[in-house]
């Protein structure tokens, strides 16, 4: 068997020995197949390049779409951010305007506070004078009410309130406080009258005046007790008419005659038509007595009560229970309104005047 070296040597020698025959006898299609292969490769490369280009184009398109969407989202975010920024700016402007208004108000309040502080300082410096003037007004009003209405309790409360206001002052008003304490002690020792109760009794008496009977009160005559007998059937028509006429004339004559009980001669001065004027005059007397009671005018009070008692005993029926009740009310008012000497507050007013002169 020939070796590999020998075979290779023989193969190399064979072409060298007959070069012309190999070149002449080679078939033509081998040259055509070698030429098609490059074209085929070129077509494949072109197709691959086209496919790659198309794929790249699709990818680029998707990337552009994604970028467009992101751009839209970014534009929307930018628009929202712009709106929020404008809102924030509006809010900031509003806050700034409010801060400006607050600064103005604080400035005004500061000015008012400074004015109030100055006023407070002025009042503090003149506090004693201010309290003294207020105390003088309270004491003066209490003195007027005491003399006009006799309200001891109200005057006592007023003086105690004035003394409480003077408690926080210095020693400059000590003399005024001492005078107030003396007047308070004097008012506590006075037995106050119950003026409203006495006035109420006078009101009750006035309300009963219209129901009091007069001594010469007219009493209507009683009618015939028995029934009028019917005329006999035998009487003629003209006799029946005559009896009716006589009865009517008799009734008219009875109306012209009034029977009264007269115990005193001057009672004839009070006629039934004058009874209303008598009652009105008595009411006026009692009203004057009431006004005198409220004004603590003892002289006019007792004078009006005496005249009212005289009129009741002279013109009204003193045996009537209503008349006796009114007389009892007037007696209670007369005895309950005894004169009570009320103290004045001149001591406190004098002490206040002296302190004002010193200041």
State the helix count: 12
Quaternary organization: single chain
Summarize the biggest pleated sheet: none
* Structural class designation: mainly alpha
What is the beta-strand fraction?
Answer: under 5%
Outline? elongated
Keywords: Membrane, Transmembrane, Transmembrane helix
Biased composition (Low complexity): 1-27
InterPro entries: HemX
Organism: Pandoraea thiooxydans
Explain this structure to me?
With 359 residues, the chain is mainly α. It has three domains: 43-125; 126-192 and 345-358; 194-216 and 270-336. The chain is built from twelve helices and no strands. The protein starts with a helix and ends with a helix. Residues 1-28 are annotated as: Disordered. It comes from Pandoraea thiooxydans. It holds the Pfam family HemX. This is Heme biosynthesis operon protein HemX.
Quick structural overview:
The protein has helices at residues 4-17, 19-25, 29-125, 127-149, 152-166, 174-188, 195-207, 237-256, 275-294, 298-315, 321-336, 346-358. With 359 residues, it is mainly α. The model is unreliable at 1-26, 218-235 and 264-269 (pLDDT under 50).
């Amino acid at each position: 068997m020939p070796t590999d070296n020998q075979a290779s040597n023989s193969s190399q020698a064979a072409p060298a020995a007959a070069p012309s025959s190999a070149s002449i006898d080679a078939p033509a299609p081998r040259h055509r197949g070698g030429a098609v292969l490059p074209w085929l490769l070129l077509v494949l490369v072109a197709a691959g390049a086209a496919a790659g280009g198309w794929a790249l184009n699709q990818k680029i398109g998707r990337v552009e779409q994604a970028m467009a969407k992101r751009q839209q989202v970014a534009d929307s975010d930018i628009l929202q951010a712009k709106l929020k920024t404008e809102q924030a700016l509006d809010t900031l402007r509003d806050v700034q305007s409010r801060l400006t208004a607050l600064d103005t108000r604080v400035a005004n309040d500061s000015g008012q506070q400074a004015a109030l502080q100055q006023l407070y300082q002025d009042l503090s410096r003149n506090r004693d004078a201010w309290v003294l003037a207020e105390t003088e007004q309270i004491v003066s009003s209490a003195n007027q009410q005491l003399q006009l209405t006799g309200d001891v309790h109200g005057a006592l409360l007023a003086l105690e309130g004035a003394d409480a206001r003077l408690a926080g002052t210095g020693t400059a008003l000590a003399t005024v406080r001492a005078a107030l304490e003396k007047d308070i002690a004097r008012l506590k020792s006075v037995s106050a009258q119950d003026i409203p109760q006495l006035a109420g009794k006078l009101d009750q008496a006035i309300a009963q005046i219209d129901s009091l009977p007069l001594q010469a009160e007219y009493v209507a005559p009683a009618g015939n007790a028995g029934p009028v007998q019917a005329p006999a059937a035998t009487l003629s028509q003209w006799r029946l008419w005559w009896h009716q006429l006589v009865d009517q004339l008799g009734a008219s004559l009875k109306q012209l005659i009034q029977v009264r009980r007269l115990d005193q001669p001057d009672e004839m001065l009070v006629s039934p038509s004058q009874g209303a004027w008598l009652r009105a005059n008595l009411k006026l007397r009692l009203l004057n007595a009431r006004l005198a009671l409220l004004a603590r005018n003892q002289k006019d009070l007792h004078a009006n009560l005496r005249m009212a008692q005289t009129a009741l005993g002279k013109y009204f029926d003193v045996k009537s229970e209503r008349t006796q009740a009114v007389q009892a009310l007037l007696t209670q008012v007369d005895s309950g309104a005894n004169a009570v000497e009320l103290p004045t507050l001149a001591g406190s007013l004098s002490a206040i005047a002296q302190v004002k002169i010193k200041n």
